[in-house]
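I had to read the description of the data format several times before I understood it. In essence, backbone conformation is discretised, so a fold becomes a row of integers matching the chain in length. I therefore recommend that a typical entry be quoted early in the introduction. For illustration, here is how one protein appears when written out as sequence plus structure tokens.

***
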Amino acid sequence: MATVFNVKGERVFYMSSQPTNELLDVYLAGQTRPNKQYRSSHNMSPNEMFDKYQFEYVTAGVGYIETHDQVYRVGRGDFFFLNRLRPHYYYTDPEHLLEKIFITVKGRLVEHLVAAYNLNESVVVRHVDVYRPLRLILNGLDAVENSLPPELVNRTALLLHEIIQMVQAPVLGRTPPSHRITDPVSLVQILIVNNLDRRISLDEMAKYANLSKSQLIRRFHEKVGLTPAQFVIRQRISEAESLLAYTTLSIQEVADRLNFSSDKHFSQTFSRLTGWSPSQHRRTNRTTVPDRTSFKSS
């Protein structure tokens, strides 16, 4: 297919607008490029029945995956699998921008493979090199304009089987490292990034981190150089920069989405922290990537 990018700047190799194969349906496949505002979600819309599986391989940078009760860190050389029927959020580290390749699938065949290889967890992270088979899948999909021909469905299924075998192969002589995050400041940072559209009280943050409010403020400032409140504002403005550049949302809509009290308050804060007004930033940084709002990043 012709080179296409979604609103987050990801290269889309293939996207299906509707289910095409009950055995194995490829919903989306692509490549995430460096973007300091990268945030995504998986199985968050009830209209999609929470039934998709995600296979991703990190080629550079660092990212974080959050479920309702755990946070995972992934880096270069890590594969991660996101299970169906489970909601997930995931984000780039702002200092080490995430790059990855991915495929989103559903269907009876992948369900059987997941069951056969006991991929039962909500999130599975392994430091295993699945770049070659996953890249072969993307290369095949990139040549398709519309629905997948049967031979490509079969080839994709075989390569997914190979990936799952590699991921679940026994690790002899050692225990795979844990990717779960336990640092309370990191947990609060991710909580904030996940909830830029609502106000999170310091009490809520402290409870989430299992710290007192004074402990949280002190430790947060030691690690980040900002108070939690200052970090919230910085993250909202960073997200606003992305929305202004990558979407056609109005300034009022951006302000509303990021929970500013008014567009005036948003514009004043944006100008103070960036040196630009929102409209100046949009004119200067407006991407040439088409605004295809029907595309989803993962």
User: Anything to note?
Assistant: The radius of gyration is 20 Å. Residues 151 and 179 are 37 Å apart (CA to CA). Residues 184-285 form a domain with the Arc Repressor Mutant, subunit A fold (CATH 1.10.10.60). Confidence is low (pLDDT under 50) at residues 171-175, 287-298.
